[in-house]
Backbone:
């Protein structure tokens, strides 16, 4: 029998979707080189944990409904994941590539060999790489089940070791790998695109979600009994992120863009912030009492989060055009309005897509 849904996980999907839109709105705001650094910090730094948090949430869903102790059919699993993720990924890649082709008055990107490369690396639009990494996680599911089964024998020790190994890999890739050069152009391209497909940057947070799913009641009881410490840890990790962001600009003379490219989710402080953010918000959403209106808001947003994720770049493109036509630049006011409008429009479009015939909806939204 299928386990009941965990409301906190649904709410977190909605929260993370708000964060992802914030990051992408922040990218538009950077068109103004003097944009308010505090607003940019909210959009690009405070929201930063929400990207890897989706891997945490994906793992939770997978292992919560199919424990490592349960029977597992790899072929059935891949068939279901193909429907939910692969088909929508292909459809939306084609849609975004077609849009870019119309914009450029050039259909080269739709040629089969070019489109194939785009699909392989998630280059159709800036947000689609996430689905490529997720598909690789799915393809390697037997490995994660074996790893999680082993980790559960000594979770604290093994996850701590994995955490520091993860930090080392991420640090090397982020701050040291730029000097790596290959003589073969194709190999250099594959290496340079590693952020778009390499699951190795997110193994720790993925397995953390799996552990929470496998030992949900026990872990939630532990988290609840350490709520104060979890809250302090989350705040300190947030301070470390924002402090680093302000520091590199004030002391090292970094631009806003350089600061964002330095203080990100793969940085050491970003890894800590991601882990603390995931644990904190699972706990906070579980213990918090909500009014019916607030609960409905998070539930609706969480349930629509996948569709919002798929469509929101189109909404941002539309809003950017509106600002251009209106002769409006990116100020604090217009950026905030763009963010709120993008959330509302993306939610509305998603609800509209959910009314499509099931045969069509299955390829557009995976359901």
Residues:
């Amino acid at each position: 029998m299928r386990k009941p849904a965990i409301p906190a996980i649904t709410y977190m999907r909605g929260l993370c979707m708000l964060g992802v839109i914030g990051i992408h709105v922040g990218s538009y705001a950077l068109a103004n080189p003097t944009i308010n650094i505090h607003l940019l910090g909210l959009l690009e730094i405070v929201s930063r944990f929400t990207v890897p948090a989706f891997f945490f949430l994906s793992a939770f869903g997978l292992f919560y409904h199919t424990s490592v102790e349960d029977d597992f059919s790899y072929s059935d699993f891949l068939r279901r994941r193909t429907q939910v993720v692969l088909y929508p990924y292909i459809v939306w890649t084609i849609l975004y590539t077609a849009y870019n082709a119309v914009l450029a008055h050039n259909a080269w990107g739709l040629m089969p060999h070019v489109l194939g490369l785009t699909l392989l690396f998630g280059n159709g639009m800036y947000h689609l790489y996430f689905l490529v990494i997720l598909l690789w996680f799915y393809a390697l599911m037997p490995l994660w089940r074996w790893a999680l089964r082993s980790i559960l024998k000594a979770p604290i020790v093994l996850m701590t070791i994995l955490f520091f190994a993860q930090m080392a890999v991420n640090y090397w890739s982020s701050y040291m790998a730029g000097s790596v050069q290959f003589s073969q152009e194709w190999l250099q391209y594959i290496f340079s695109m590693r952020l778009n497909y390499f699951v190795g940057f997110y193994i720790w947070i993925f397995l953390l979600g799996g552990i929470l799913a496998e030992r949900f009641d026990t872990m939630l009881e532990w988290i609840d009994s350490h709520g104060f410490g979890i809250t302090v840890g989350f705040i300190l990790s947030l301070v470390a992120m924002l402090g680093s962001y302000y520091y590199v600009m004030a002391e090292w003379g970094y631009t806003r863009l350089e600061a964002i490219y330095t203080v990100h989710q793969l940085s050491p402080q970003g890894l800590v912030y991601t882990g603390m953010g995931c644990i904190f918000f699972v706990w906070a959403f579980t213990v918090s009492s909500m009014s019916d209106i607030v609960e409905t808001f998070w539930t609706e947003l969480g349930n629509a989060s996948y569709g919002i994720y798929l469509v929101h770049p189109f909404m941002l493109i539309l809003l950017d055009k509106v600002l251009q036509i209106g002769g409006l630049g990116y100020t604090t006011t217009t950026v905030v309005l763009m963010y709120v409008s993008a959330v509302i429009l993306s939610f509305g479009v998603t609800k509209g897509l959910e009314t499509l015939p099931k045969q069509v909806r299955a390829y557009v939204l995976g359901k």
The radius of gyration is 21 Å. The chain is about 75% helix and 0% strand. The CA atoms of residues 220 and 265 lie 25 Å apart. The chain has one domain: 7-364.
